[in-house]
Amino acid sequence: MSLPRAVITGYGCLSPLGDNAATTWEGMKAGKNGIGPIQNTPLYDLRATIAGQVRKDLTGIVEKRRLSMYDRFSLLAIAAARDALEHSGLEITEELAPRIGTVLGVGNCGWEAVEEGFRRTLVEGKKRAKIFAVPRAMPCAPACNISMQLGLKGPVFGVTSACSSSNHAISSGLQMIRSGQADVVFTGGSEAPIIFGVLKAWEAIRILAPEVCQPFDLNRKGLLLAEGAGVIVLETLEHARARGATIHAELAGAGSSADAGDLVIPTPQGPIAAIRMCLKDAGLNPEDVDYINAHGTGTKANDSTETGVIRTVFGAHADKLSVSSTKSMHGHALGASGAIEIIACLGALREDVVPPTINYNEPDPECDLDVTPNKARERPVRVAISNAFAFGGLNAVIALKKFEG
């Protein structure tokens, strides 16, 4: 018996490039730089003063009297989920609600609440943190809050695997659909790391770029952090057809693996295994792939390793692939990165346009793929894959293809 097919019927996004999925995609196509000086966050003695921030005012996302119950990563997730719901045209009924799952990826906890608690007790001398600190900070809070805001009563949980969290969450949503646990799944990721303590910690690793993110460029100097959220609505093909939904793409497969090596230094074997597993799961051959949204962080080790991984998996076909790192535009949103980058894959499939890798000035012989430098390119895109390779050697890859009935 064949497994149920999973299709994407709606999507929403908030990113440094825009307040919704449409403006985020337009920013990607235009090669817009969404990274700039950090605003509305105490920087103290930080050297890291630039990042990708969502500019949308989130204070109206929930009732004002309940605002203190939500950390920023939950508000971002709720806003993206509402956009995805509206885009999907789905009606959530009492009958359907128990058949709708929610799974959100988060790389960190709610650091806004954590840092606020430290400040209150250690700096201001208060005796206790605020009452909602724990439920605000728990990594599953975005998934829980989407469920409660939209009335989704199927399986609900959070996924955390550092920078692969969104892709692991989307993979989990695919398994929910295939296993029959749900007819609909809201899945993606959310992250809000533009917080003093988080920035200070990343500063210590010494992989933050001083000015711009330049993936695959010879003179790349590191990554730049960002916040954001993305949510897609997955449905069984049968359910989507029954309600006459618009189908934007098929989530064809997913693959994951672990390097079981170093905590921070990438190795090729794990990512190679994840991509191959994804292609097998999707029933695809390497030559079927047209576009790869690369993990592409802009660090020396990541970009050269990922290039070697792609060449190993795709062989001679690697020279026919279009590759890009949209992190050059929206920054590295950690656990939310895959959820923002799926917007790039959906746009490429829909419009046959590959978004660029901006800030690309000088080729690196160790990164000798077509990385779509600086300007979007028109080309047929029938299959796109999105790579996510995280600290801890945690790899997750997803494959999307144009829906063909």
Describe the structure.
33% of the residues lie in helices and 19% in strands. It has helices at 21-30, 72-88, 111-123, 133-137, 141-150, 165-179, 196-205, 237-242, 269-282, 300-314, 327-330, 337-351, and strands at 6-14, 35-37, 50-52, 100-105, 156-159, 184-191, 228-236, 249-258, 291-293, 322-324, 353-354, 377-378, 383-390, 394-401. The protein has a 10-stranded mixed β-sheet, with helices on both faces. The longest helix has 17 residues, at 72-88. It is globular and about 65 Å long.
End-to-end CA span: 19 Å
Instruction: Name the overall outline.
Output: globular
Order of helices and strands: EHEEHEHHHEHEHEHEHEHEHHEEEE
Strands across the major sheet, in which order? 5-4-6-7-1-8-14-13-9-10
Kindly give the count of domains. Answer: 2
Low-confidence stretches are none
What is the number of helical segments per DSSP (H or I, 4+ residues)?
Answer: 12
Structural class label: alpha/beta
Helix percent reads: 25-40%
Name of the CATH superfamily of the largest domain: Thiolase/Chalcone synthase
Mean pLDDT over the residues: 96
The whole-angstrom Rg is 20 Å
Biggest sheet overview: 10 strands, mixed
Task: Please provide the count of β strands.
Answer: 14
In percent, how much strand structure appears in the residues? Answer: 15-25%
CATH architectural designation of the largest domain: 3-Layer(aba) Sandwich
CATH class of the largest domain: Alpha Beta
Reported by name, the CATH topology of the largest domain is: Peroxisomal Thiolase, Chain A, domain 1
